Amino acid sequence: MQADKDKAKNLDGIVVTARSGVDVRTKAETSYSITTIDEDRLRMQAPTSVTEAMKSVPGFWVEASGGEASGNIRARGIPVDGYGSVNLLEDGVPVQHDPALGYLNADQAFRLDETIERIEVVRGGPSSVFYSNAPAGAINFIPRQVGDTAEGLFKFTVGDYGMERGDFWVGTPVGDGWKLGMGGFYRKDNGIRDPKFPANDGGQIRINLAKQFENGSFSVDYKHMDDKVALYLGIPMRTLPNGDIRAVPGFDGNYGTLAGPETEHIQMKMGDGSLYNFDNTEGTHVKRDQVTIKFDHDLIDDWKLAESFRYSNTQTQRNGVFPNALSSGTAFLATAQKAVNSYLPAGTAGLQLRYVDNPSQVFNLANQNGNALVVQAGLRGVTMPVNEFDNDTRILRKFELGGQTHDVTFGYYYAHFNQDFSRYSSVALTDAQDNARLLDLVAVNAAGQPIAKLTDNGIYRYGYEWEHAGGKSTTNAFYLSDEWQVTDNLRIDGGARWEQVNTRGQTETKQTVNQGTFATSNILNGTGVFVPYDHTFSKLGWTLGANWQFSPNSGVFARWTPTFRLPNLSSYITSPTATPITQTMDLGEVGYKYTDRQFDVYATAFYTKYNNVGFSNYVFNATSNSSTVQQGYADTKTKGLELEGSWFPSQFFDVQLTATYQDPTYQGLRYTEIVNGAPVLRDYVGNQLIRVPKVSYRVVPGVNLLNGKLRLQVAYEYEGERFVDTANSVRLPSYDVWSASARYDVSQHCSLYLYGDNLTNSLGLTEGNPRAGELQSADAGANTFIARPILGRAYRFAIMYRF
């Protein structure tokens, strides 16, 4: 684990992502932008989630404030949530054919552990030729390979938030050329934002068996995951007179969460008379079995076959306490008075809020918790089982023609999955404090005594959301690529992909049920009538790039890629009559790369034009306690610069840098909204894309001491100003984050690690409240609002033993 005596070697690594061919390519030889995160760099960063690992990738704006899963990545300015513009790969095969299935991001079905050796991240380029649903890039987590001798590692990590975690990996030859690998992890912790019950609990295990034959190779990999992770949502924030944004009084912005014991477990009444078991200890609970088979074989006349197959069965339950609306207690009672008027008994003189766990305690409208705020919290439960089968077949051959070489691939990709989807949500009333307490709305007489309870143990409305649907998706794609070596220094890469997707299924229609009380008077429920859908879409995309390697350690590249993203099953599964359209885009990049023993740099200028971006704007109406949907389409245009580099001036000191400057704007985003009965034109052309900063960078200096046995490094991140909505009416200020890590090699086999995350307890806001609307936020102009900061300061310590 000593410092690399050869200094900079980042551009010398072999690249396997977003290309196919008989020959191998190094990072220095690629004609597109790629970031490689090797084993040592990954361990020193020690990301706590898939999304967190992407912080060292230029051109990516990542949001990891939601916990270990359900992150957001926006690549090169594309304003798509979750993993809607990049695909997540494991060993070159999609973790999930569609990484953005609505409430089912691919990062929910994947966990990072010590079975992963390195990460390759392609931004734009040819990723959309080789993979479905990867218009802006592909993230490839590459597992460890077993060597010719037995080896392994064990790692135990503890954290100051109750974390205990064990990782292991062992690999060994097992006779007759076969190699066996096994690894995984288990961890349990309370979460940095402690809900007062175990937030993260579970793990995974994988077994791999592989053999290298004279004319090919074969491997089979099985992985089982059973893991629960907390879903962190926004918290109440306030703008101070000096412009600073802090959590409201009575709430800890770094460690607080609305979720707590009182919203941990609630039996929610449903419209059919049954009960929905809302268990927030489940968080995002994924049970997944995955089998991957890979087979390579040399055919006749120098042709080669490469086959990849993956089957997965994923059961996901996703529960969370969503802060739908925030208001003062006084304002809430004024609104509630109109809503409950017909349910008030005779003798009612007014309304009060009282605590469910202590009915004699009246909510102080002047200063409860120091803020006097009430939250209408959505207790949302989503169930999503998915069965998926993916297969990728490639035929490869390298040949000479006219003194030049062509490395050609013909590919066929097939994916089929079945998905069911059910959702049920109720509105609970809580106060605004860490581990919020439930409130009841009560009618009182002239003496201030309660005479009727209008809510049901804190539930203001049962069933404001209800969905029941299921569907199937089948994708067929044909693609080809050619790496044409024109001269020793010049190579031209080209490729094309034609893809077709069929989505079909049925969605149950909804009706409103009144069970006689205010809380049960407006429950959404199924009708027993299903609306079918069956749609087919197809599109052709292509890419053309060139790489001029004018010296072994220096070169330039350029690429142009018109590509697409077809509608997916989520486009219909809750909206069977919807008419989504294919999103198309043009991606361009020009780059320069250089490496030597002390220095490497990767600089890229990029251009992204994204067409027909769909905006489903879910707005929670605090008066009617319901969600409405605004649908819009627009184009975006982003021009930017990316920089990635490392400097090794001596064996004692080095520094790594990633930086992005971009100008992300909306094009053609206009729509008419009815306001007070009159049409109002909303024109957001030229506005900055939501939640995407113009400037961001990350600097990681480090020192190697004691002949390389001790490694110390710090990481400084800066994220520029962003906006919550397309109207740019709610600003998220710029912020910075300091982190640090250390490694000490006790011996050749044993190492100690220390990590400190967010050392200064930054309150950087990654998003506002999507429930307030992302076209034009209802929080515009509000002094108090909902937003989600990054996680507070945390420390971890690990010991690793290698053999």
Automatic annotation (TrEMBL):
GO cellular component terms given for this protein: cell outer membrane
Keywords of this entry: Cell outer membrane, Ion transport, Iron, Iron transport, Membrane, Signal, TonB box, Transmembrane, Transmembrane beta strand, Transport
Domain of life: Bacteria
InterPro entries, A to Z: Beta-barrel_TonB (IPR000531), Beta-barrel_TonB_sf (IPR036942), Plug_dom (IPR012910), Plug_dom_sf (IPR037066), TonB-dep_rcpt-like (IPR039426)
Keyword Iron: yes
A Pfam family matched in the record: TonB_dep_Rec_b-barrel
Main subcellular localisation: membrane
Protein topology in the membrane: Multi-pass membrane protein
Subcellular location as annotated: Cell outer membrane
A Gene Ontology molecular function term of the record: siderophore uptake transmembrane transporter activity
Span of domain TonB-dependent receptor-like beta-barrel: 276-759
Domain TonB-dependent receptor plug stretches: 27-138
Family: Belongs to the TonB-dependent receptor family.
Protein name: Cyclic nucleotide-binding protein
